[in-house]
Structures are given as structure tokens and as C-alpha cells.
Amino acid sequence: MPHDATDERAQAVTIPRRSPVAMSLRIRRRLRRVSTSVLRVGTAEPRTPAGLIRSANNVVLLSRFYYVFLAYLVGTAHYPFGDAYSGGPPTAPLWPIRLVEQLVGTDWLGYQIALTAVGLLFALGAAAAPGIFVLRFGAFLHLFLHVAIRNSYGSINHGVHVLMLVGFALLFLPGRQHGRAHGRNSVRRCLTALWMAQSVILLSYTLSGIWKIWYGRLELFSSDALTRILLDRLLAEADDIPPLLPFVAPHEWLAQSMWWMTLYIEIFALLVLFRPHLHRPIGAVLMLFHITSDWLMNISFSLNIVMVGLFLLLSPLAPARFSLSGTVRSLPIVGIPFRALKRRQQAQQPQQTDRVWLVYDGECLMCNNYAQYLKLQQSVGEFVLVDARLGGPIVSEVRELPHDLNDGMVVKIGERFFVGHDALNVLALLAEDRGMFNKFNRLAFRSPLISRVAYPVMKGARWVLLKLKGVQPIGSGG
Description:
Elements: H1 3-12, H2 20-40, H3 49-75, H4 81-84, H5 95-104, H6 112-128, H7 133-150, H8 161-169, H9 184-215, H10 225-236, H11 245-248, H12 252-267, H13 279-297, H14 302-313, H15 324-330, H16 336-348, E1 355-360, H17 365-373, E2 382-387, H18 393-399, E3 410-413, E4 416-419, H19 421-430, H20 436-445, H21 448-469
Helix pairs in contact: 3-6, 3-9, 6-7, 7-8, 8-9, 9-12, 9-14, 13-14, 15-16, 19-20, 19-21
């Protein structure tokens, strides 16, 4: 068969939409989009290889803190097997406990000191050498069995679930590097472990928000929903009244505001995973949320506070510098108009170039000071100031325009000329966001409307200054 015909047949072959191959390709494309979202959405600039390696190192450091905290829990009264084991066989054993019972019986539950010592050794070992999988797996297995035995007596306690799931996510960390820098696969595994840890943390809040809406759907828009919940807690906690409850309960507007804010944060918590600008702010808000819940309703999730602090407040994927504008634009729903405004400003942004010329009147004190103090962004390679009274090639080009140099300054970018208020607006868009003068310039004149209104006033001030100075207007000879 001729080669061309073979190519035509190959091009004509289509993969069935529901075939395993097609499904695999779709899954790979979606995972690639998710990976790109995790690494780049909401960041000011693409991440460099050096930045990703630094993030991977920080993930390993956070895992060390996790296992140190786990060792503290194992070695204190917060987390021994004796706290979960009531001295008798489990009344409603979960499947892990049933499996262990079939293998070794139930006598092992009585060896509290030995079990605590084993868990402590695994946790400390994983903190010292997080690259050794056996140590991480031993620490996770010890925690897993503790959670299983704790919930095998007829009731479920969710207080340790997030801690356990984060421990599972850390099992995917890479092995020991033997003093070498993280390679590509190692960096990917570190970021995958971080992504999984953040996923299980944030998913727990989203599920909590969905449960609140489903359980209280008939009272979702009630103005006193949280107030009645607080009053019920007040009756239930008559012997131990939380400090904030008497203050919040009488104020329906405050209680309702807290109720709606809680729903908003919890429902959209999972989206924070893909918006690095929100990792630290939302992490701080969630930690404050748990502290407030404790002081308001005696509902304490202290382990969640630590997990949120480690993997969100200290997130290696969060921008190095806090940006209020980036945070607001990243907010779900609320950030939509701000993102639209940002896109509009970017559309109005002049095309960047290696050189920008500013033609101004060097005898005008106001114009001269403006030109000298103005600093443009680093994306502008060279900022050239041209005194219109001294002439030159650029001044000659400006004289060919339908514009009188006495009517205002001129900016040339590439092959485009901006005159008068348009020049003022363009320079404001290109100005740096550092320094008092440049910040004021950006704030005042980045709006075309404000530039159009303010420029005639500035033009009149220039005419007055030149008259007081006794300087003649720019003549035809320069």
C-alpha cells in the first residue's frame, strides 16, 4: 500500500468516545489541567524550576513538623491508645479492628505502654528522616488503628480524621535523596503530597458547608438561624458558658453575618486549592473560625487548627508577598467584578516595548519635575526623556503630527504616539508601583476619564508658570 494511503487511513481512524483509550486520554488531559491550575492559577508569574525545588524542600520541612506534632500527641494524654480503649472489647468494631482481631486476637489492646512506645518511635523516626517510607507508613498505621479503635464503640468522632488523612497524603513523599537536590520526579511527588494534604483539609470544610445547607435548607435564609442555634447551646452549656456566646446571641445581625460568612467560606473552601493567593488568607480565616467556634459554642477542633496552619497558612505554593488585589480577585463569586476590571485594565495597557520616549517642555518646572521623578516598570527597557526645546529626530516626528507642542507632552511607544491626556494616562499605566510619586501617579491618572478632566488644569498651570518665568512658547524652530 502506498505511503500516502497509509497516512490517510491513519488519519481516518477515530477512537470510540467510551473506549478505555479515549477515557485514559481525557483523564490525562484533565489531570494536566489540574496540575497547571495548582501550580500557576492566581500567581503573579510562572514558577521557575528553582522556585519549584524550593517549594519541594518546604513540603519536606512541613512534613517534619507534622511528625513532630504527631509524636507530641502520641506521647501525651491527647493521643494514647488507652484514651480510645475502654478496657473491654469493641462493641461495634470497624473493619480494621475486625481484621486485626482475626489475625492476633484482642489481647494487643491491653499493651498501652508498648503501643504508645512503638507509635512514638515511628513518629520521631519519620520526623528525623521523612524520606524513609517505612517510618512514615508505621506512623500512619499507628494513627489509623487508633482512629479505628476510637470509633469502634458505637459512635464516630471526626476530630482526628483530618490528621489521619494528611498522614496518608504524606505517604506519597519521595524517598531519600542522599544529599542530592530534588529531581523532576521528586519535585512532582512532593507537590502531589502537598496537593493531597490540602485537598483533604479543604474538602472537609466544603462537605461541612454542604451538610449545613442540606440539613438546614428550610432555615437557610432565616434571619435568626444562628441565634436559635446559639440559644440551644446556651441551654446545653449552662454549666460552662462560652465567653463569646452571651455577646453574640442577642445581636441577630452579628449572628447572621457570621452564619453567612461561615457558609461562604466552607462551601467554596475546595476552590482555594487552585488559587494560591488564597492559601494563607483563608488559612488564617479558618484558624480564626475554629478559635471563634470554641469561644462561641465550646466546639473545639484543635488538630484542624494545626493542620490548617501547616499546609495552608505556611503553604509553599502561596505567593512570597501578600497581595490584597490578588487575594480579592481570587475570591470565588466576590472576585468576579474585580477580575473583569483587571482584564479591562490589561486590555487598555499599551503594548510593551524596549524603549519609551517622552517629549516635554524642559522650561516648565512642573513638566520637568514630572519627567525626572517618573519611573516606569522594568518591562520597559529604556525610558528616554526629550526636551522639546532642544529639537532632535523625535521632536521632528512630533512636529509632523497634527499636534502643537505647546498643547502638551507627547509619548512615543513603538510606532504609536500619545498626546495630551492620552500621554498622561499611558505613563500612569506604565509607571512603577513603588515610591510615593509613582503610586500617586498610577492612582490618579490610570483612569482615562480622570486624565481627560485633569489635563486641562495641568495645562493651564504650565501656561501660568511659563508666564511668571518669562519664557516664550515653543517656537517653530524648537
